[in-house]
Every structure is written in structure tokens, then in C-alpha cells.
């Protein structure tokens, strides 16, 4: 497992700020949910939890809108380099490259180890695994795959939060009947 370093340069990257803002959405949902449950129990009325569900739904809609405006899936390499920083992007790519091609690299370079992987990647002019003739072609394809995965994961979280908020909003008052309140 690689160690994540947060440097001053990383803190200034737009991608770091975006990640923090999406984490804020998750924390906000948790806080609203806890407040809704606590309020419902204190006042013995789960309609308060329904109101919390409405707020959670609004948070999910806001999160989805921000994701829609960001449009991770369609970033070009230059836009991604601006967003993530070229060095960070290259570092992430290099780590991914090593994981994906570890066996092949050991075959081609018997002295290969994770420690010397980054120097080795600098020397590689092509990838003999098939469709890519240069590192740049591989990097562009890798970036596309990575951003698709991130975008999909983000949309899964958005859906889960939206589902939770809508479910609470619509049905939490029925808990009153179950509890006899």
C-alpha cells in the first residue's frame, strides 16, 4: 500500500479542493441524519426525520449538480493536468502502471522492483502489451478509464444519498405508527 503524502502543493490543487467539497457533502448528510434521528426521538415524532430526509435529498441534488458541472468523464488530458497537477497525475499513473504491468515488467526487466519502478517507467518508450505505441497513448487511455471510474463511483454515492433522503422523506412518519406515538 502506498503512502499518501499531502504537501502544500497538493493542498493548492483544484482537485484536492473538489475532493474536500465532496467529502463535505458526505459529512453534511451524516450530520443531518444524526440530527434528524435525535430530533425525532426527543420530540417523539418521526416527521422530523422526514424533514431531515428532505434536506438530505437537497444535499444529494446539489452534489449531483456539482458533479454534472465538473463532468469528470469528459476531461481532456490538459484539463486533467490543470485540475490535478501534472506531477500528481503522473505519479498516480505511474503507481497504476506498476500495479497493472508488474508481472510483465518483471519478465522484461529481471531487476525490477517497486522501488526502482519510477526510474524504469521514465525509460520505457512503448508498451509492448498491445494497442499502445507510446507512454502518452497509454496515459491518455488510463486517464479516461480512471476518470470514468471516479465518475461512476461518485454517481453511486449520489444515488445512495438521494435514495436515503427520499426514503426518509416519504416514509419516516410511518415509524410513528409502528411505535404508537
Our measurement of the CA-to-CA distance between the termini, rounded to an integer number of angstroms, reads: 51 Å
Helix content: over 70%
Q: Given the structure, what is the number of helices?
A: 8
Compute the number of strand runs: 0
Mean pLDDT: 78
Shape summary: elongated
Question: What attributes does this structure have?
Answer:
181 residues; mainly alpha
Provide a descriptive summary of the structure in words:
The protein has 181 residues and is mainly α. 77% of the residues lie in helices and 0% in strands. It has eight helices and no strands. Helix 2 runs antiparallel to helix 3. The longest helix has 37 residues, at 135-171. The protein is elongated and about 70 Å long.
Topology of helices and strands:
Elements: H1 8-12, H2 14-43, H3 47-70, H4 77-84, H5 86-108, H6 117-123, H7 135-171, H8 174-179
Helix pairs in contact: 2-3, 3-7, 4-5
In a few lines, what is going on in this structure?
This protein is an all-alpha fold.
